[in-house]
Amino acid sequence: MTVEEYNKSIDQCADGVFRFILKNIRDEDKARDIVQDAFEKMWRRAGHVEYQKAKSYLFTTAYHTMIDFIRQDSHMVGLEIEDTPDPDFHENSYSDLGEILNEALGKLPEIQRSVVMLRDYEGYSYREIGDITRLNESQVKVYIYRARMFLKNYIGKLENVL
Fold first, then answer.
1. CATH number of this structure's domain 93-162, picked from the four choices 1.10.3720.10, 1.10.287.470, 1.10.10.10, 2.40.50.180
2. C-alpha gyration radius of the chain
3. Which CATH class is domain 1-80?
4. What angle, rounded to 10 degrees, do the helices at 126-133 and 54-77 form?
5. Using CA atoms in the order 12, 9, 52, 66, what is the torsion angle rounded to 10 degrees?
6. Global pTM exceeds 0.85
7. pLDDT tens, residue by residue, 58-105
8. Cβ of 108: how many Cβ atoms within 10 Å?
9. What pLDDT is stored for residue 91 in this prediction?
């Protein structure tokens, strides 16, 4: 990959990779760091990465960097995530469907959230998601199905939301 191709791929993919990472970890500064690491890794391997596969390489690298970050962060902090209900949450208290969807996505296990976002937000095929996450296509389909069922049950009927 040439310098021009590298710069072009960064221009084309930066926003999508950042959105994907940010939706998963919900910390803008950490998301920027992870995306920057992915860009740096691609730069170091620019001679081995084909321009046509730059987008996939960036998403894959960013995804695995994010997983490493989450693992490292959980070891350093030593906190366990509790699934306690929010005392300020009241049914029908949301007025924005996007806010409800973000809340629901936040309740998904990390792998389900990642595959659903790669499929529905970024438009990757099952095979491409499998390559990025190192899962086989069947596992990807199962995780997406489970995530969508959870989202459907969490959000409920649209009449109840509006």
1. 1.10.10.10
2. 17
3. mainly alpha
4. 50
5. -90
6. no
7. 888 888 888 888 777 765 544 444 444 444 444 444 456 677 777 778
8. 21
9. 46
